[in-house]
Write a structure and sequence with these properties.
By secondary structure, this protein is mainly α. 63% of the residues lie in helices and 0% in strands. The termini are far apart.
């Protein structure tokens, strides 16, 4: 092979460009095989794998995830949160424990995901607060009848105080109470509620009797009991508002 010289600089630049090396022709030294160093391809530089690169492999099966969540709901319905195990959920769903842990880091995260898979309460808009609240009661009792939510809520609230998932549990409970907040806000806008109490506190006051009866009694409040409680609360709020106006 002919060595590269100053007179063949154009050819050297072309070859150097092809192999990814650009050096001045004068810097080219010959190897024992008379091949200029500048014409040798550069050594590949090892590249560390990126930690942010997505993992390769099969995408998660939505059907498999749905089976895991359904199995979780069944397990907590039969055994409660304390008695439910990842092993039992995996066996019931027909998957491995590894499959579950790939998506949910622990049991409480899995339980929350399962509860969040339940349908949210629709927000009624009858034009009247009492009728809106009555519809929420009807829809909520239907959810309790189809799921173990009523039995799980007390244990879930206990986990909120001692679990690292406390904030997630709080957001879940607040999200499930959204229907109450919306109908109360509408009642304020229509002038049905005149109290100076904050709307979120009014919603809590109206939602608590049914929730507490479901969690602490064998049966929820009957229609007559619920109506009596709601009317008493609303009369109390209205009376307090009237007293405030009289003092002004």
């Amino acid at each position: 092979m002919v060595r590269a010289t100053a007179s063949s600089s154009d050819a050297v630049r072309v070859v150097s460009g092809l192999v990814g090396v650009i050096r001045a022709p004068s810097a080219c030294a010959s190897t024992k095989r008379n091949v200029p160093y500048c014409m040798l391809p550069p050594m590949a530089t090892p590249v560390a794998p990126s930690l942010s690169a997505p993992r390769r492999g099969r995408p998660r099966s939505e059907g498999r995830s749905a089976a895991v969540l359904a199995a979780t709901l069944a397990e907590i319905g039969e055994r409660g949160i304390a008695g439910t195990t990842i092993e039992a959920v995996a066996a019931r769903a027909g998957v491995s424990k590894v499959t579950i842990y790939r998506r949910w880091p622990d049991k409480i995260a899995l339980v929350l995901a399962a509860l969040e898979s339940l349908p949210e309460l629709p927000v009624p808009d009858t034009g009247n607060l009492v009728d809106d609240l009555r519809q929420i009661r009807h829809d909520l009792l239907a959810v309790f009848a189809r799921s173990s939510l009523a039995d799980v809520l007390p244990a879930l609230m206990a986990e909120r105080r001692r679990s690292e998932h406390g904030e997630a549990i709080r957001r879940y409970v607040e999200g499930r109470s959204r229907a109450y907040a919306v109908v109360v806000e509408r009642a304020f806008a229509r002038g049905e509620l005149r109290t100076s109490m904050a709307p979120d506190l009014v919603a809590l006051l109206l939602a608590s009797p049914l929730a507490m009866s479901v969690m602490n009694r064998d049966e929820p409040l009957t229609e007559a009991e619920w109506t009596q409680v709601v009317q008493t609360v609303l009369r109390g709020l209205d009376g307090a508002a009237t007293e405030e106006e009289d003092r002004r």
